Amino acid sequence: MTRALIIGGGVAGTITAIALHEAGHQPVVFEAYDRDSEGVGAFLTLAVNGLDALLPLGLKDVVRSVGFDSPRMSIGLGNGTRLAEFPLGGALPDGTVSQTVLRSDLYVALRDEAARRGIRVEYGKRLIDARQSNTHVSADFADGSHAEGDLLIGADGLRSRVRTIIDPHAPSPRYVQLLNTGGFAEGLDLPDEPGVLNMVFGKRVFFCHVVSPDGRVWWFANPARRTEPTEAELSALTGEDFRQELLDLVAPDRTPAAEIIRATRRIYPAWPTYDFPTVPVWHRGRMVIIGDAAHATSPAAGQGASMAIEDAVTLGKCLRDVPDVPHALAAYEGLRRERVEAVVAAGKRNGDDKVIGPVGRVVRDFFIKRAFSKPFKEDPNAFMWNHRIDWDEKVAI
Fold it and tell me: Which ranges carry the FAD-binding domain (predicted)?
């Protein structure tokens, strides 16, 4: 039985722990914060490829219990033109479709399931350093404590400490020139079908909303910022001044965006978007990175959580089937790198259509309308949705 030290107790770390536990190993999760993430974060849509990867771990229904069906996506322009509506990745054989879920609800459901299975989580454990030998790893935490195991997994996100321990020359994240914000509007009576994601390339800002089954309207917006904002600039993007800025951005559009923003009690403070075109080194010896630590992708791909899930399941398979830890980590990278870098590139392309000036917008809208004027011969995103991982198939050594 391999003892795995997992750095990071978010979605990626928790699912990795469950996958390793299912594969017969002993995972221990170390979370930097002295509390969990309950009630923290916005929402996400978990695509069918991520849901399918959860099936052999017994987690698909756990996720569905806290989310709602999002079977389709609608694309439109700020002038009110509805361009197309199409399935959001199709459906699994049992009819399961993509799920929209609060990030904190997803985390709590997974955390509780991990606890039910006897997986240990330690809070207030911020990693400061780690070392390895031919046979084991050791981790040092900011509170003066230490831990030892057979391997160390960095599921510690965009600013991963494990990534820089593995490779001191690792690249920094790339700023994608977009901000994120959103919220939840109440008391509206929109004519939209619940669960359908309504996405609009507005004249000044990209805006998306979805009506939840309880009638609330979940939404996000992507204000463009050409230069990476400082912490001081981000701290100013809050409160009623920020609400008014968003209202000004959506004012030219013939959509319900302004109504939705006004009906939102609390708008999330803005945060910037980053990705990693490539991270050259994913593993060294008995240390490895997964999820955003290895391949953060723009939310425009709609695949961040699903990529982390696929990583976790693939890593679990490799450590189950390849007895030597360094070779298992190499096999994991070999199975994942090409796919995740293609997803990151797709997310960057999708996001680029949101960062555009007035003249460019006219050109963009022309080409978007032309693209949707006739059915696609092949969905350009099909490679993301259609990917499946066979848990029972042995990893080749």
Answer: 2-345
Q: Which two tokens stand for residue 370?
A: 């032309």
User: What are the structure tokens assigned to 100, written together?
Assistant: 């929209």
Which is it for strands 146-149 and 137-141: parallel, antiparallel or unpaired?
antiparallel
Q: Are strands 43-46 and 26-30 parallel, antiparallel or unpaired?
A: unpaired
Neighbour tally for 368: CB within 10 Å: 18
Domains of the chain: 3-173+276-386 (3.50.50.60), 174-275 (3.30.9.30)
Name the one residue in this structure whose structure tokens are 């040092």. 140
- Helices 11-22, 103-116: axis angle to 10 degrees equals 30
Amino acid letter, 165: I
> Token pair of 309, please?
């899930």
Per residue of the chain (397 residues), give pLDDT as tens: 799 999 999 999 999 999 999 999 999 999 998 765 544 568 999 999 999 999 999 999 999 999 999 999 999 999 998 888 888 888 999 999 999 999 999 999 999 999 999 999 999 999 999 999 999 999 999 999 999 999 999 999 999 999 999 999 999 999 999 999 999 999 999 999 999 999 999 999 999 999 999 999 999 999 999 999 999 999 999 999 999 999 999 999 999 999 999 999 999 999 999 998 899 999 999 999 999 999 998 887 789 899 999 999 999 999 999 999 999 999 999 999 999 999 998 887 766 666 565 545 555 565 566 556 665 566 667 888 899 999 999 998 7
Q: Collapsing DSSP states into helix, strand and coil, what is residue 274?
A: strand
Q: What is the DSSP string of 284-333?
A: ETTEEE-THHHH---GGGS-HHHHHHHHHHHHHHHHHH-SSHHHHHHHHH
